[in-house]
Structures are given as C-alpha cells and as structure tokens.
Amino acid sequence: MERRDALRAVTALTLGTVAGCSPTSGTPSSPAVPAGTPGSARPAGPASPPLPDEVRNGPRDRPQIALTFHGQGDPRIVTALLDELRRGHARVTVLAVGTWLAANHDLGRRVLADGHDLGNHTQHHANIKTMKPPLAYAEIRDCAQEVHAVTGSIGRWFRPSQTRYATPTIKEAARRAGYPTCLSYDVDPLDFTDPGSAAIVSATLAAARPGSIVSLHCGHEGTVAAIAPLLAGLRARGLRPVTATDLFG
C-alpha cells in the first residue's frame, strides 16, 4: 500500500508539472495588447518572411491591391475623401506628412478609426533625395514622432517624399528611424496634376493588377470624385482594396 501511494504521488506531481508548462519553457509571456488599439501589434499568426528594404508591389498571386495616399491637404477635402472610402468599404494606407498631421490629429485618428493604415511621409515633404544623411534622418524621425503621438506607435510604413524610389542614403535613414522597408508603388495615375477624375480612374485601371500598389494623393477634389468609380472598376476586375499591411500579411 505504501509503495502504491508513493507511486500515485509521484505520478500526480509529474502530471501537474507538465500541465503547467508553457511553450516558452518558463519564459514569461508578454501581456496581450487589445485588438484594434491604435498602434497595437496585429494578432499573432504564422511568421511572414522579412520584406526587402523597398517594396514596389505585393504578391501577384492574390486578388488584392493597395491604394496608398500621400497625406496632406485641405482638411475639408481629406474628410470628403475619407467619407468616400467609408461609403465604398475600402481600406487604404495614408502616408502622412508630419507638419500636416501635427495640425490635424483629429483626421489622423479618423484614419485609424476607419480601419486604414497610417504611415510616415517625412516631416516637411521636401526633396529627401538631395538631403545629407543627418537631415534625411531628421525628416523621417520627426514625422515618426507625429505618427506616434496619434497612434501610440511609429507605424509600419515609410514613403520618401518627392521621389518614387529610395536611395541607399534614404534606406539607411529609414532603418535608423525604425522603418526597415520603404513603401514604393508600381501604379501612378498622376492625380496630383489634377487631370480630372475620369483620367485618374482610367490610368489606374489600365495599369492595376493583383499585388499593385497605387500612388494617390489626399487633398485633391478630382481624386475624391474618382474614388467611387475607381472602387467599382477594381472590384469588377476582381481586385479587393486592402491596406499595405494586409497586402503583405
């Protein structure tokens, strides 16, 4: 009896230890971040391979497309743009200019509340391609601080100002500021030249394909007018507008 009782005790102790083990072998787990909190991490899932230091398009084998907007302009027009995107049930990525975001925290919060990505498009929207490394870094860092003030994080995405592609100097400055990947694009309808909504829609639909990243601009009335027909045209082609984060998710 005593031998059987001892065996039962050892077995119970062993089972209790195994039941309390964690996959991290005793490493304390990080506290959970509520889903949907501005600036919070996305829910854990399968690890994606790291992205290169610049992306010009997403995966071509999924029917998704990322509409991205250079974020500055008359708050009235930006509000109208966000209203159109909401009506169209589209999720996009807004790369905000820091000085504009500093004066429009309410619109930055609206971007997040509507389910869009909010990223960094330098502090002053000057020609970062011609800047010396310290100034290029300061432009990215200062905008990151403005994004952080709205979201609680610096965001995932950085797009250089006044250049489609990042130079090695820009990429290094972006890495220092916390952005390992620069967000470029492969479709540019030149909406900032105000060619009219029909031209914006036509140029975008002619070039867009699965995985495309489209460069658009807040603050232009022609772009606002183009949103509804553009979304309809994309969906007629089987392309679903998603954030840049979801495009690479």
What does this structure look like?
The protein is of the alpha/beta class. It has a single domain, classed as TIM Barrel, CATH 3.20.20.370. Mean pLDDT is 86; it is low at 1-45. Helix 2 (75-87) links the parallel strand 2 and strand 3 (93-96). The chain has helices at 2-19, 75-87, 98-103, 105-113, 133-151, 168-177, 197-207, 221-236, 244-247, and strands at 54-55, 64-71, 93-96, 117-120, 182-183, 213-217, 240-242. The chain is globular.
In summary, what is this structure?
By secondary structure, the chain is of the alpha/beta class. The protein is 43% helix and 11% strand.
Q: Which descriptors would you attach to this protein?
A:
249 residues; alpha/beta; TIM Barrel; five-stranded parallel β-sheet; two-stranded parallel sheet; disordered N terminus
The gyration radius over C-alpha positions equals: 23 Å
Average per-residue pLDDT, rounded, comes to: 86
By secondary-structure content and strand pairing, the structural class works out as: alpha/beta
Terminal-residue CA separation: 60 Å
What is the element string, with H for helices and E for strands? HEEHEHHEHHEHEHEH
Q: What's the main sheet like?
A: 5 strands, parallel
Helix content: 40-55%
Gross CATH architecture: Alpha-Beta Barrel
Per CATH, the superfamily is Glycoside hydrolase/deacetylase
Oligomer: single chain
Annotation field: number of helices: 9
Domain tally: 1
Question: Which ranges are low-confidence, i.e. pLDDT below 50, for 5 or more consecutive residues?
Answer: 1-45
